[in-house]
Amino acid sequence: MTRTRLTAEERQEQLIAAAVQAFSQNGYAGTTTDQVARLAGVSQPYVIRLFRTKQELFLAAVQHAGARIEAKWRAAAEREATLESLGQAYKELLEEPELTSMLLHGFAAAGDPAIGDPVRACFGGLYEVVRELTGATDEEASDFFAFGMLLTCMGAMRLVGPDAVPPQPWARGLLSTFGKK
């Protein structure tokens, strides 16, 4: 069996994908660089050589998730630059729950000053992208993000997305507007 040698950029992308998977499952505190290395099929010292610290790897994973959402929104805006089209694109991203879970873990770890500023910048950047692409007012963008956070939380609880469980009675009302926004 022949092994294909990856470029440094491809190896870095592979490590970030493994980091998103690991951190989205176990959070910042519950994930080690060794776990990420095993998922990526590399040594733990190699992970440290590329990212220096677990914190830098975590931030790269948060940035990856934010960049993936932004790219999806930009593609949707090329077809139709409305909040509805961006909302539909976000719903499609719920089929990749590790992305939204990664952001939730980033928000949860934002109490750490070294993590908080980059996470806030990522979220703020997404807010500005929505305003730029759609021309939404602050109020409209706020409503858009509020509903998006509801969907993100519902996805984290596995009430929407690819592995959704049947919703409990309290969730039905919240989910009743899912197809209407």
From TrEMBL:
Gene3D superfamilies: Tetracycline Repressor, domain 2
InterPro entries recorded: Homeodomain-like_sf, HTH-type_TetR-like_transc_reg, HTH_TetR
One example GO MF annotation: DNA-binding transcription factor activity
PANTHER family tied to this protein: HTH-TYPE TRANSCRIPTIONAL DUAL REGULATOR CECR, HTH-TYPE TRANSCRIPTIONAL REGULATOR RUTR
Organism superkingdom: Bacteria
TM regions (residue ranges): none
Keywords: DNA-binding
Organism listed in the record: Paractinoplanes abujensis
DNA-binding region, residue intervals: 32-51
Domain HTH tetR-type: 9-69
Protein's name in the database: AcrR family transcriptional regulator
